Amino acid sequence: MQDGYITEDGRKIGGVVMEMKNITLRFGGVVAIKDISFDIREGEIRAIIGPNGAGKSSMLNVISGFYVPQEGEVWFHGKPRPQMRPYEVAQQGIARTFQNIALFEGMSVLDNVMTGRLSYMKSGLFSQALWKGKAEAEEVANREVAEKIIDFLEIQHIRKTPVARLPYGLKKRVELARALAAEPKLLLLDEPMAGMNVEEKEDMSRFILDVNDEFGTTIALIEHDMGVVMDLSDRVVVMDYGKKIGDGTPDEVRNNQAVIDAYLGVSSD
Amino acid sequence: MRSVRPGGPEWEENTLAQTQSGAEGLLSLPALLQRNAKQFAHSPAYREKEFGIWQCWSWAEAEKEIEALALGLINLGVNKGDFIAVIGRNRPYMYWSMVAAQSVGAIPVPLYQDANAEEMAYVLSHCGARFVVVTDQEQVDKVIEVQDQLHQFEHLLYLDPRGLRKYDHSQLHQYSHVQDQGRAAYDEFIPELKKRRDELTYDSTCVMLYTSGTTGKPKGVVLSNRNVIESAKNASEFDKLGLDDEILAYLPMAWVGDFIFSVGQAYWTGFCVNCPESAETMMTDLREIGPSYYFAPPRVFETQLTNVMIRMEDAGNFKRKMFHHFMAHAKKVGPAILDDKPVGFMDRMKYALGDFLVYGPLKDTLGFGKVRVGYTAGEAIGPEIFEFYRSLGINLKQLYGQTEATVFITVQPDGEVRADTVGIPAPDVEIKIADNGEIFYRSPGTFVEYYKNPESTADTKDPEGWVATGDAGFFEDKSGHLRIIDRAKDVGKMADGSMFAPKYVENKLKFYPDILEAVLFGNGKDRCVAFINIDLTAVGNWAERNNIAYASYQELAGHPKVLASIREHVSTVNKSVAEDPMLSGCQVHRFVVLHKELDADDGEMTRTRKVRRRIVEDKFADIIAALYDGSETISTTTEVTYEDGRKGAISATLEIADAEVVSSMGHKVAAE
């Protein structure tokens, strides 16, 4: 397996973490993804873009193990990955955010972030209910991690606020916080900037870059905002009608004729 | 001259006895720090909320941190007399960096953290800062942006390494690393540090603060140790502040008030300085800490009051009625109880009940549950707002001060608090009033000079040490309290020779929520007239509730009902102005509600929303003429600039309204 590369801004990108090999995904007669291959390298920000209905979210669900492709294999850390249950995915160090926010609305921000630590909590039901011994120590340790993430994402002021009362942009940030609380190796972001105003997008972009920089987290993201994608990502996969039509650095992708056609359309003659 | 210090325990005891009794030997903040570390070793000195928990440093711990940083600064090559800029939000580390700078003979220069890169460049190059200490990436970026303009700049220390990993670190240093290096080089540099610390005198510069300056470039106000320590000592004694007091440090560090409260007074008395987790959590942190000594500009009190009122409107019927019932009672007797004046037994009982049901919980929610001494200053506070807090039993007072005076010029003593005065001269402050009404003062806090600006220094401070404030005011005969009426340059004379103080009247008008802005004219004339701007939010809200349809600001401003209510306000203000024989000539005879808001884009106001009188006077000359010639309406066309820079014009026919005036004794006013 080849070694990594150095990005324009001087970051070292490592070897391949995950590789998609000829993935084809069908829902009944509909082909959502057709024979797609690409890889994700350690420490990079990898974007998947494409027009509506191109199969981006399906692709992300394949990466997360939620969908099992009919053809092709997902290689993770150099081995073909078997079908997994959701908790097994989490144990492998993969965390994600959702296009339509999926937080516990009635719980506070802090509690939501703490749910991200669930896979690290080993004490039993009784011990936790009584909050004695191991459970107490565990809670304190996990709370510390959660608080560091709250500090990192600058959401201290809403720590005790129920999520339902938050505006959309902040909910998105809380979701990112919960994903980070799991201390993932690979972070999947499904349209992290959807529905945000310019300022919120700038904030979110900064957080994504900082997460990558500070924790060395590998990030795969889907995004519609081309400006954001081009600024953020190291490499971009472009999809259209379930097929891969481009793959490379933002500059390469921007000058790719197939990509330009897909986005701007082509005349029929 | 410094005497040679004998060693031995007897000497230790001696100095301790001395320090407890007075200021002997405590000639600088680093010296006060040494005393505190010994005397109050285990008392909390600093707290900061981080990761959801209040982290605490005792005086002994704080002293160690500051020493480590000071050693690190020597290690980096800080010389005596260097300037070290400090930029960022209130954090213990930032306060330490100022005292560490002083310890090594350098001069700290705190800057406003929201200053843009250009403003920062001016100040940094003006003082020639060799070192800059900042909190985070945002500030690092600003300094790097203007680095080319800073010829003396050498090293930058930052607190939070986040996002800075990829930066070129030849000039950047992480704060904690500098401390580590300082600790590592302890043996090497400690003699040098001690030597520099001992060389500090009462006249060494303690800090340099840049005044924001409404006109021209900011000026660097040099304050000596004497200025800061004497002022802190006097003010602490005045309000009996002690070791057990608590403050929340949340106001800009570049502001002289924060330096005196969070550094000067904290070091003098040894009380604890609490830093909020972030700007957004300030209100929550305020509540958690419950400071006993609190300072806020009127704006903060105003916002809090508005929030309380809005939330009460949303509360249940019973709670709302209870709130209003007890607040009415508090208004009646609260201030008197606070001032220890005689109040009937039944009223006291009812107040106690109200305290249990309403005032106590409310104060607790606001974070004022433990406030023993609270101050507001900076600008005039609305009497209703002021009374609201006082009636709850919060000892809110006013003071008058400025950077050049190391804050204190006048303060209100407990029990003599009023909304319309700023109190009596602070301890050791002499005040004189010039013929034109301008206030001059002389005090131990009087600043040394404006840095590199002898002309301005000479203009402001005369050889005898009297400093011109630029404000006009007078002492009330009965109480001996100072009242500020206006900026001295705006105060004029009416045709009959009586005083014309526009701001005094304008402020009274602006205290009404539906009046956003008022401009008074009358300098050299026989009577005063005024322009009024309505507050679109407040009046719009009122219109909505009363089903009054309007399509534009102009239409709402011209509505007969609005006019009627403004007329009522003006008449009430006239009555209150007339009570003051000196200023009764400033009553508003006629006024007009303007068809547009005065706006900075049109040059009518400064960016900080202060009215530019001359420009307004020129621009609306036709309306002013109409106000004086007795016409009932005036048609006018005004040029406006839109936010994108395009220009347009609006025309309107404005109705001119007469207001009731009160003729006062000894001063006849023709009320036609």
Describe the structure concisely for a colleague.
By secondary structure, chain A is of the alpha/beta class. Chain A contains 10 helices and 10 strands.
Describe this structure in words.
The complex is a heterodimer of chains A (269) and B (672). By secondary structure, chain A is α/β, with parallel strands linked by helices. Chain A has two domains: 1-93 and 184-269, 3-Layer(aba) Sandwich (Rossmann fold); 108-178, no CATH class. Chain A has helices at residues 56-63, 86-91, 109-115, 125-130, 134-152, 168-181, 198-215, 226-232, 250-254, 257-264; strands spanning 16-27, 30-41, 45-49, 71-76, 79-80, 94-97, 186-190, 218-222, 235-240, 243-248. In chain A, helix 5 (134-152) crosses helix 6. In chain A, 38% of the residues are buried. Chain B is an alpha/beta fold and 672 residues long. Chain B has 22 helices and 28 strands. In chain B, a hairpin with a 4-residue loop joins strand 17 and strand 18. The interface between A and B is medium-sized, with 20 and 13 residues. Chain A: Keywords: ATP-binding, Nucleotide-binding, Transport. Chain A: One of its GO terms (molecular function) is ATP hydrolysis activity. Chain A: Residues 18-266 form the ABC transporter domain.
Helical residue percent band of chain B: 40-55%
Q: Give the DSSP E fraction of chain A (strand runs of 2 or more residues).
A: 15-25%
| Intertermini distance of chain A | 44 Å
* Backbone CA Rg of chain B: 27 Å
Would you give the CATH topology of the largest domain in chain A? Rossmann fold
Classification by helices and strands of chain A = alpha/beta
The proportion of strand residues of chain B reads: 15-25%
The total of helices of chain A stands at 10
In CATH, the architecture of the largest domain in chain A is 3-Layer(aba) Sandwich
Domain ABC transporter (chain A): 18-266
GO molecular function, one term (chain A): ATP hydrolysis activity
InterPro entries (chain A): AAA+_ATPase, ABC_AA/LPS_Transport, ABC_transporter-like_ATP-bd, BCA_ABC_TP_C, P-loop_NTPase
Organism (chain A): Parasedimentitalea huanghaiensis
